[in-house]
């Protein structure tokens, strides 16, 4: 949940998001370094009239300023690729949930539990309770057990949507006729919010995602209520 004026990421609720935040900080440090060095060189150049007699055919400096940027790019690219592959990994999920984007709501199916199904519509502003978050609250939250790997299968029934939970580091396109997959493991219980992230029509802004992460006992209790 972001707060007013927040400029950085939401608190991480999964290990992937922790790594993404670390990567962001790492990139920002390198960016600052480059900006400082280039800024220093430019300033120095502007404030004196000297010229270098050996500026042409200067093999040494040209070697240095070719190799150095290449190394910097490598230091940015390798961790980025590593996280890309970690994000895609679905190794041993304990639960599969399927979500379908519709105009304009999400529906969820728990295929491991006799296909429990539900629609998840945004709570209208006039129906909010005190303390609720406007445009983020839904009537049926998706519930998942914490600290267990969950496999999400994501698709759409009509147009493109995108299922997104920023604090988990998850954003997956929901494409009609295609089943996308993502795995995530939450680190702690809580309610995590997201919003559809692919312009999908008039009510695109009004199909939020609210995910409740609870311990597995509470999850089993919640899911068994559907079958009774
Ligand atoms: C968008 O949602 C509002 C509120 O639920 C509804 O009144 C309106 O008809 C919807 N817009 C369209 C184009 O369906
Ligand atoms: Cu949308």
UniProtKB/TrEMBL annotation:
Q: Which UniProt keywords apply?
A: Copper, Electron transport, Magnesium, Membrane, Metal-binding, Mitochondrion, Mitochondrion inner membrane, Respiratory chain, Translocase, Transmembrane, Transmembrane helix, Transport
A Pfam family cross-referenced in the UniProt record is COX2
Gene Ontology MF annotations:
copper ion binding; cytochrome-c oxidase activity; oxidoreductase activity
> Which cofactor(s) does the record list?
Cu cation
Work out whether the entry's keyword set contains Translocase.
Answer: yes
Q: Which GO terms describe its cellular component?
A: mitochondrial inner membrane
Q: Name one GO biological process term.
A: ATP synthesis coupled electron transport
The name on file for this protein is: Cytochrome c oxidase subunit 2
The organism is Amynthas jiriensis
